[in-house]
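User: Hi! I'm a student and our assignment asks us to look at how structure tokens line up with a sequence. Could you show me two examples?

Assistant: Happy to help. In each example below, the sequence comes first and the structure tokens follow. Example one:
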Amino acid sequence: MFISTGLDGAMEMNGRVTLQQMIATGGPATEQAANTALSGDIAQVRQFLTAN
């Protein structure tokens, strides 16, 4: 139980931290798009992080 729920939570936090780093280091368009994803649910975060 802990592994599956703990891992999911850690992966979500990792994705959100990655977005915050992108906001801090990216240009204006990246900042805007990352902020939009960050204000959404985890599916939006994952979609942003895996988009080509």
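Example two works the same way, sequence first and then tokens:
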Amino acid sequence: MPKLWSPSPARCLVIAWHLINSPGASYQELGADWHLRRLNPACRTCNLVS
């Protein structure tokens, strides 16, 4: 079973600070499978080549 990841309170404050100080910024959730997509060798090759 994979270990669940949760952001630290300090990291949440940094994200909030950037969102408050940049009116045009918006937060976009990367998705639950972000790590799997990022570590997929085929996708990694495509990202590095392009």
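Here is something you could point out in your write-up. The chain has a mean pLDDT of 79.
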